[in-house]
Amino acid sequence: xIVTAKNICCSIGKQSVxxxxxxxxxxxxxxxxxxxxxxxxxxxxxxxxxxxxxxEGAVLLNDKNIQTIPLAQLACCRAVLSQQYLLNxxxxxxxxxxxxxxxxxxxxxxxxxxxxxxxxxxEMQVASFTGRLYxxxxxxxxQRVQMAxxxxxxxxxxxxxGTGKLLLLDEPTASLDCLHQQTCLQKAKELAQLGYTVVVxxxxxxxxxxxxxxxxxxxxxxxxxxxxxxxxxxPGYIAEAYEMExxxxxxxxxxxxxxxxxxxxxxxxxxxxxxxxxxxxDSRSFxxx
Length: 289
Ligand SMILES: Nc1ncnc2c1ncn2[C@@H]1O[C@H](COP(=O)(O)OP(=O)(O)OP(=O)(O)O)[C@@H](O)[C@H]1O
Known about the structure:
A six-stranded mixed β-sheet has the order 6-7-8-3-9-10, with helices on both faces. It has a four-stranded antiparallel β-sheet with strand order 2-1-4-5, covered by helices on one side. α3 packs parallel to α5 (139-154) and α4 packs across α5 (139-154). Helices cover 29% and strands 27% of the residues. α6 links the parallel β7 and β8 (197-201). The chain has nine helices and 14 strands. The chain has two domains: 3-244, Rossmann fold (3-Layer(aba) Sandwich); 245-289, no CATH class. By secondary structure, it is of the alpha/beta class. Residues 12, 15, 17, 35, 37-43 line the site of adenosine-5'-triphosphate (ATP). Residues 3-245 form the ABC transporter domain.
């Protein structure tokens, strides 16, 4: 599914939150939205999901204005992981994941729905929480259950094709440990490779470097830069968006750069090329093991 944002503007009261944003998110790609706190990332995601209408401009899904697509139809092809889920009712974990299947059945879930719930719980490593009350889980465990729910919403069982599906994730790794950050974004990448269109808000520049095909970098609701990961994750653009200096390090064994705050230099293991603020490791300086 091609997602086209056309001249998106959003005002809340007198505050202009998003200014004239235009971009395209394509199937097969993970698009990462970056920007400082308050830059407008979550507002943009709500507009891309159809939950909120822009003040001006439009979001098109395969050339169709998302605001004209019936909710029941939208729920079968796009899933959203929001930042926070406050829940006061005593649902079990599998009941939460089953909520992702609600758009797909009328009164009772089928065997296929139950199978998909189990499969998605296994993929997010939450199958062992079956029978547990959701509220009794830790923050990161709850986040993984919510991720299983959005996967279940878009899953179509054995076929598992991704054509025509849109996955929107707002800081999916915020509460996750480093292993589960990798599991979660690896899953997002796999789904993109199956043909899903995936949009992820992240704060960690290094996770963005590792998983993004495309990056949209915002500052105060305006586009700083959009393009491939290599084009956008440049010290100059990062400084503009975050008012923080970073350095970009490259290692010959890794296809993506490492971004570090400029104050934390490891001069002993670096060969410095200050011209572009880019550093290259001397790999012989590292001892494996
Ligand atoms: N309902 C609202 N009423 C007033 N201001 C709002 C409302 N929703 C968002 N804003 C403001 O709009 C701006 C963008 O908010 P948004 O949540 O999109 O930022 P964000 O980039 O997702 O931030 P963060 O990284 O902190 O999650 C912020 O300044 C926020 O205070």
